[in-house]
Amino acid sequence: MTDASLLVWGRILTGGHELTPSRIEIQDGRITGVEPAQRPRGADFAVDDGWILPGLIDLQVNGVAGADLTSAEDPEAALVAVARALAQRGVTAFCPTIVSSREEVIVERLPVYRARTVEGGAESLGIHVEGPFINREFRGVHEPELLRLATPAEIERWLRVGQPAIVTLAPERPGGLAAIKQLAKAGVLVSLGHSGATSHEAQLGLAAGARMATHLFNAMPPLHHRQPGLVGAVLASNAVVELIADGVHLDPLIVDLVVQHAGVARVALVSDALAAAGLPPGESLLGHQIVVSDGRIIRRADGTLAGSALLLDGCLRNALRWLPKLQPAEVVLMATQTPADTLRLPRKGRVAVGADADLVIMDADWRVRHTIVGGKLVTGQAVGANV
Ligand SMILES: [Zn+2]
Fold it and tell me: What is the CA(292)–ligand 1 centre distance, in A?
């Protein structure tokens, strides 16, 4: 075996199915073979009791382990810290997310958080710019003085320095629809969120090119049978919805309801993790505001729910528990292939020949044991150990 190759064997969950035990050959960062096979001798990893999944993909990560991507003085160091912490937890690719910020901050961070690999960590799929073109009434913990209307000129200045992967905005704000068209034309995934849109306004946003809703139900009016709003419009469309399955932002029954309605190919689980995720209870930063974590729930001092303390592997475990009618392989799609397909990344989110060699090996209780990013083991025991 050369350094650039790995052989992994076990039960694989991909494409919504459980494959019969198979060997996965990895060469130079790509999967070069997936074949049903007996447990091979000489495998780098033979998973007798557990699962091999495509690496987890998180479309919304504000920070983790003390690093806040919006406010960090050294964004490069913050990105590396977040990417490495995520890889420890099975996430192989993610969208570094910043909340509403001054234009200089966005323009400064766009190139740093561009789509790129990070040595020893999860890959960045490009920045998720959440705000500032959002609705003040539904701003959550975004700072009101940083909100503003979208202008073609500001978006043009963003695009000049780097392409965001995702922009979350409110379609009902003046300039919102034009911004959606401008961003969608540039290949950016526009997601509706932090919005008070009526169902009609939301439908206009979808028609203008938005393809997703950001943390559905949170930071928007609830679904009402006579005022279906953004939630109703998006669910009745074919757009993808992000759900924060941390057990705090949404009742498990709502997750079940949405998945039954929309199907796993239209639901992307996200952590919306903050710097406090992975830290003991206490204070930490989101942007320039202090938020307080009790280890599970993160709030601002006034009680406003801020973001999640749970990473995507924990959200996946919740969803597996909450959705017993689904096969585990189907649930796994929501944290792997669905986010990859939503970003139109056909080499991500699947265990298949030609795909990027991003894998997570989990034990029978769905705890992360090893993560492989681009064919390289980035956490866990030394290569050669049995799982
Ligand atoms: Zn948000």
Answer: 17
CB 29 within 8 A of CB 43: no
Q: Are 305 and 99 in contact (CB under 8 A)?
A: no
Cα torsion 360, 266, 271, 82: sign = positive
For this structure, is 272 an active site residue? yes
pTM for this predicted structure: 0.96
Phi, psi of 344 (to 5 degrees): 60, 50
Which phi and psi (to 5°) does residue 71 adopt? -105, -10
CB 346 within 8 A of CB 364: no
Distance from the alpha carbon of residue 243 to the mean position of ligand 1, in angstroms: 11
Answer whether 154's CB lies under 8 Å from 180's CB: no
* Strand 91-98 with 56-61, pairing: parallel
- Ligand 1 centroid distance, CA of 226 (Å): 25
Å from CA of 287 to ligand 1 middle: 12
CB neighbour burial string for 151-161, b if at least 16 within 10 angstroms, e if fewer = eeebbeebbee
Residue 209, number of CB atoms within 10 A of its CB: 17
Q: Which DSSP category does 93 fall into? A: E
Going along the chain from its start, the domains and CATH numbers come out as: 5-53+352-378 (2.30.40.10), 54-342 (3.20.20.140)
pLDDT score recorded for residue 345? 98
Amino acid 386: pLDDT: 42
pLDDT digits (tens, 9 = 90+) for 242-264: 999 999 999 999 999 999 999 99
| Length, in residues, of the chain | 387
Where do runs of H (alpha helix) occur along 12-169?
Answer: 75-88, 103-112, 152-161
How many CB atoms are closer than 10 A to CB 4?
A: 12
The low-confidence residues of the chain, meaning pLDDT below 50, are 1-2, 381-387
Cα distance between residue 143 and residue 99, in whole Å: 9
How far is residue 331's CA from residue 317's CA, in Å, rounded to a whole number? 9
Active-site residue identified among 44, 58, 246, 272: 272
Distance 215 CA to ligand 1 centre (A): 7
